[in-house]
Amino acid sequence: MQIVRIYSGDDGESHFEDLTLDQFAEIMNRVGPGTINLTRREPPYVEDYHTAPRRQYVIALSGAAEYETADGTVKRLFPGDIIIAEDLTGHGHIARSADDNYRVSFSVPLAEA
User: What does pTM read for this prediction?
Assistant: First the structure.
């Protein structure tokens, strides 16, 4: 299982940070306002550079996805992996399908830290 945080750096770019399960345990119960969403995306899809719509964590249920930052770093996430989206400002990141399966994910809003 991968737990990856994507956040906005002081340079205005999005960056990745690998987290441990213990670190995620500290974050996951900070549920914020908004809806919990179940999303299904048909492959192939590409979302060009964008910022996270809100502070949230997303659990992949099916399909593989790639996330890419401006420096060319790519993280590939599979079912069971978690991304914590906190790049609310700046250049953002790219998200795209990484296989031929539907991407189903579950997202939970997070309160401010």
Answer: 0.93
